[in-house]
Amino acid sequence: MRVIVTMEARLLRTPDGRVWTRGGPDHTTWSRYLSVFDEVRIVARVQPTDGKPVGASAVDGPGVHVWAVPYYVGPGQYVSRRTEVRRAVGAAIGPHDACILRVPSQIGTLMAQELRRRRQPYALEVIGDPWEVFAPGVVRHPLRPFFRRRFARQLAGQCRHAAAVSYVTARSLQARYPAGPTTVSMSCSDVDLPAEAFVAGPRPAAADLTRTCRLVSVGSLDQLYKGVDVLVDALAVLADRSVDVHLRHVGDGRFRSRLEERAARCGARQRVTFVGTLPPGDAVRAEFDRADLLVMPSRTEGMPRALVEGMARGLPAIGSAVGGIPEVLPAADLVPPGDPTTLADAIQRMVTAPDRMAAASARNLETARTFAAERLAARRDRFYTLVRDARRRPDEARMERL
Q1: Domain that holds residue 185
Q2: Do residues 127 and 190 make contact, with C-beta atoms less than 8 angstroms apart?
Q3: CA 395 centroid distance within chain
Q4: Is the same domain home to 233 and 342?
Q5: How far apart are the C-alpha atoms of 206 and 291, rounded to whole Å?
Q6: Is there a single domain that holds both residue 268 and residue 349?
Q7: What is the pTM of this model?
Q8: CA quadruple 361, 366, 367, 373: dihedral sign
Q9: Rounded CA gap, 294 and 274, in Å?
Q10: Same domain, 133 and 21
């Protein structure tokens, strides 16, 4: 059986027909579905490009193919191409396909509408929260309040009507978007780490407190979701206090130049390096290994892969109290989003306490081990099997609850 999976990230197609992603899920992620399904069809926006982008990873490959949806960026372009997009989404679905929609997603919403019209079941993988994505300060758009209410309401309805729902968090997304009374629901992170992602043991307490403390952050700069602007402002606060830290940010996007200008204006330009996009795996792990502290001041999150990957390298971490972050970091290592002074306070307390850094390293490494691939594979396969069986028996109103 083939499974159709929607993807909201924008992809790139090179002249040889290969499809690439910069920072999004790649073929390794999509091949997970092949443990239960015979073929995977990814439905996503695809834009032609002349050559493989630097740091990109392949999306397609053995058993995994991409169905291109007309490319658009932003609400305006979507509205102008909505008919074409809807037609392409509908044409992607075969009469016997299983469908898993990764939401929130406009493409996923269109597919859910089409599947309900056809009376075909669908499953969801809930990976984010539109109520937080469109919170004040995250997205700058005159229709932000409308989008926030509309997309949160859409996701709540999709969870009620789905045949099965998998959440990447243990509690937070379930609380806001509960599954329907007859819907199978479960928690299963989409972050699973191979054996090579883990270090052998935690870091010892630092002996040299005089050297510059090295911070690292990771995330796309296409929006301000990751709170890098807040982190830049926190660096300026730390500079005023003569706390010697330097940040390396991994990731790129349209806000990079604005963030560089912001750092220059607030006197933190010499304290931050924008590394750009790196290929997943060894290159990103090398950044974690040379850092002393991972900082994730996000305004919205599901279960952030970069945070878990950093914890698997034994990195102490400071994160915002949003999404799934409080499920992996203790309250003492959490800060409210959007508050640079409180973030600076938390960083200063951590980097000036070697014993606390060492304890955080040990605790984070142990927490990260719960995301080991072998621990999550069986649970994920169980979800895929339920989705497959629901498609084979569409007349059944209920499936056995997990």
Answers
A1: 2-192+372-392
A2: yes
A3: 34
A4: yes
A5: 12
A6: yes
A7: 0.85
A8: positive
A9: 15
A10: yes
